[in-house]
Amino acid sequence: MERHDGGSNGRSSVAPDGPPGRPVAAPVGTLDVVVDPDLRLHLPPARRADRVQVRTTSTVTVGHVVQSLGVPLTEVGVLELDGVGVDPGTRAVGRRLVVTPVPHPQPVPTWPPRFVLDVHLGALARRLRLVGLDVAYERDADDDSLAAQALAGDRVLLTRDRELLRRRLLSVPPRHGAFVHATATDEQMVEVLRRFAPPLAPWTRCLRCGAQLEPAAKAELAHLLPAGTRRTYEEFARCTGCGRPFWRGAHSAGLEAVVRRAQEALHHM
């Protein structure tokens, strides 16, 4: 259980409660935590300072300190305790902890990167599929399923749920999770592309299921096409997964704008 001191001294305690009847580890001192500016949005507004003080015990780890402040370990690059690089499992016994963000582009479990998105990022899933990324998305997937898909499929789980990212296996390098800061879909797309710098292949994946598209003759798809589409268009593709037909219709101008924005995001990194 995490406990936060509500007093006026600006400190917080990350000392864990022990089982009933058993002693709790005594505090061993105060740790100054220096959180990189790029990570401070994860902290409560009142604590977004250059330095945060926390009281620790001999049983508390560096990773627990960082997560108790609200920063998912999936977002953390290097941790330095008193000037020495440490891993999240190191005991937080020291005077100064420096927390830096994960590098960009971020190392991924496999290349090119594959993703799985939580249920709240359906619009982002379509954008990423449009530019050719391998994206798994299910509208009713629960947290256990999302984490399992990420680990079993060597995918990076994209989410705005910090609690979901607290699962330890998602933060063990190579990381299988990433927090999405932006709330607008186009901004989310740019954020993800700049963080991972994946190769783009626009118009090669189904927006509905994410499978790859293959060229198809109009005659093969005629029974699936509206009459007006059959008269107007000649070039078609078919999804190798769900069989859905695709063509560059009147809606394609808006999608082309999305593709251009994705390409520009990577070009200006």
Plain-language structure description:
The protein has 269 residues and is α/β, with parallel strands linked by helices. The protein has two domains: 11-101, Phosphatidylinositol 3-kinase Catalytic Subunit, Chain A, domain 1 (Ubiquitin-like (UB roll), Roll), CATH 3.10.20.90; 114-267, no CATH class. It has nine helices and 13 strands. It has helices spanning 62-68, 122-130, 143-152, 162-165, 168-171, 185-196, 218-221, 227-232, 252-267, and strands at residues 11-13, 27-35, 52-57, 76-81, 84-86, 96-101, 114-117, 134-137, 156-159, 177-179, 213-216, 236-239, 245-246. It has a six-stranded mixed beta sheet with strand order 1-3-2-6-4-5, covered by helices on one side. It has a four-stranded parallel beta sheet with strand order 8-7-9-10, sandwiched between helices. The protein has a three-stranded antiparallel beta sheet with strand order 11-12-13. Strand 12 and strand 13 form a beta hairpin. The longest helix is centred in the C-terminal third of the chain and has 16 residues, at 252-267. The chain is elongated and about 80 Å long.
